[in-house]
Description:
By secondary structure, this protein is of the alpha+beta class. It has one domain: Ribosomal Protein S5, domain 2 (2-Layer Sandwich), CATH 3.30.230. The protein is built from 3 helices and 4 strands; from the N terminus they run H-E-E-E-H-E-H. A hairpin with a 3-residue loop joins strand 1 and strand 2.
Amino acid sequence: MKNPDILRNQQDFNRLYKKAKSSGSKYVVILYLKNGLTHNRMAFVASKKVGNSVKRHRAVRLMRESYRQLESQFSIGYDLLFIARNTITETKCADVKKSIEAAAKRAGILG
């Protein structure tokens, strides 16, 4: 069974890109929009500007792990799209976590 906490549908992504608010930091940009559900749905994206497939996958893993560590502090009821910046390639997980934390606090979705 598929995890309901992950954004998969193209229309969900299109809605986020058109209507969501954004907050950025050194390594990550977060797009966020209320979804009216009792849980958060999220997706992690790294474009080809980040690098080859190895670097893009590492960026996604770094963002996913950083979110997992901060998950309990996030407000409930949001669709979250984490977009990697090309500066993320040579960083450590702790730096990405700080970057996500800073962007989320600025957005007001981190309690």
